[in-house]
Design goal:
Helix content is 52%, strand content 9%. The chain has 184 residues and is α+β, with helices and mostly antiparallel strands. The model has no long low-confidence stretch (mean pLDDT 84).
C-alpha cells in the first residue's frame, strides 16, 4: 500500500478528509472514529446506502473531539465554526493535493497518511479498515462501502460502538454492503 490510487475518487476523498479532521483536531494519528466521521460527513458511497443512518453531528458529538475545543474557544468569544469556514476558504483543495498512504518496510504494520504539511500514522483499527477496503472487492478500486466494511469487520472498534449507540442497524447495514453475516 503506497498510494491512494487504488481508491475510487470518493473513497480517496473520505480518507483524505479523515486525515484533515485528525490534523484539525490535533491528533497525532488517524483513528477509526475519524474515518467514521469522514464517512458520515461525505457519504462517499457508490450506490445509495439508506441503512447507513448515522449523522455527522451525532458522530462528532460521540467522539467529542470538537466539543471540548468549542467550549474552550467560546469562553474566549471565538466561534469555532466561523474559524473553520475561514480556514477552509484559505486551504488548498485536499483531493488534488499529493496525498499518499505509505507502509514502512521495516515496520510493515505501520501505515502513514501523508499530505501537505501532514504525516499521520494510522491506528491499528484504521489500518485494518483501510486494508479491508482494499481487499473488499478484489481487483476493483476501494470504495466508501469497502471502508465501511472495514470498520464493521472488527466489532470491537470504537466506531462500531458509536454506530450502535446511535441506533444503527448494523446487521442490515452489513447486508446492504455485502458483508457476510451469521444468522443468530
Amino acid at each position: 500500500m503506497t498510494a491512494l490510487d487504488g481508491f475510487t475518487p470518493r473513497a480517496r476523498h473520505a480518507v483524505i478528509h479523515a486525515g484533515l479532521l485528525a490534523r484539525e483536531t490535533g491528533h497525532p494519528a488517524l483513528d477509526d472514529e475519524l474515518l467514521l466521521l469522514a464517512l458520515a460527513e461525505l457519504r462517499p458511497f457508490e450506490r445509495p446506502l439508506p441503512s447507513f443512518t448515522v449523522q455527522a453531528d451525532a458522530v462528532r458529538t460521540e467522539i467529542d473531539h470538537r466539543a471540548r475545543d468549542r467550549v474552550l474557544l467560546s469562553g474566549l468569544g471565538i466561534d469555532l465554526d466561523e474559524v473553520r469556514l475561514r480556514m477552509a476558504a484559505l486551504a488548498p483543495r485536499p483531493v488534488t493535493a499529493p496525498w499518499r498512504l505509505r507502509r514502512r518496510r521495516l515496520l510493515p504494520l505501520r501505515v502513514t497518511l501523508t499530505g501537505p504539511g501532514t504525516a499521520l500514522r494510522l491506528t491499528g483499527q484504521a489500518r485494518k479498515a483501510v486494508e479491508v477496503a482494499v481487499w473488499y472487492d478484489r481487483g476493483a478500486p476501494a470504495t466508501g462501502e469497502g471502508l465501511l466494511w472495514g470498520l464493521l469487520a472488527d466489532g470491537s472498534n470504537p466506531s462500531v460502538s458509536i454506530m450502535r449507540r446511535l441506533g444503527a442497524d448494523l446487521r442490515r447495514l452489513a447486508r446492504d454492503i455485502g458483508f457476510p453475516t451469521r444468522n443468530r
